[in-house]
Design brief:
globular; mainly alpha; binds zinc ion; 5 helices; 2 strands; two-stranded antiparallel sheet
């Protein structure tokens, strides 16, 4: 295989999102898949409170009452994904950040809005 520096490829976010629901994968990898499958043009993937905990706890059998993963386990999975370099520092369950040097998402207008979660945390 010949590698050329700076080569890149596009990935479909739907496939990543699908993988985030796989109980066969370790939790940190499911967090990564969720981030890569959900991030916006700015690299931030925002979630409602408890949403990541539900994704990591599933899939749920039909008729089963979803029981979210504990907050501590969610934070551990996010931290591990950061430590392994798959997510940027600053990632939290309400906003996972993909590394800008690894992942890019474009838009036709080239614009992206600032992340409201991290804007709020910075102030
Ligand atoms: Zn953010």
């Amino acid at each position: 295989m010949v590698r050329r520096e700076g080569e890149w490829a596009r990935h479909y976010q739907d496939s990543w999102l699908e993988r985030s629901g796989s109980p066969a994968l370790p939790r940190w990898l499911r967090v990564v898949a969720l981030a890569y499958g959900s991030h916006d043009n700015d690299g931030h993937a925002r979630f409602k409170r408890g949403e990541v905990a539900l994704v990591l706890a599933g899939p749920f059998p039909r008729g089963d009452v979803p029981k979210p993963l504990s907050r501590q386990r969610v934070h551990e999975a996010v931290r591990q994904a950061v430590e392994l370099g798959f997510l940027d520092e600053g990632s939290i369950p309400m906003c996972l950040i993909v590394p800008a040097h690894d992942v890019r998402k474009g838009s036709l207008d080239g614009k992206s809005k600032p992340c409201p979660v991290h804007k709020r945390r910075a102030s």
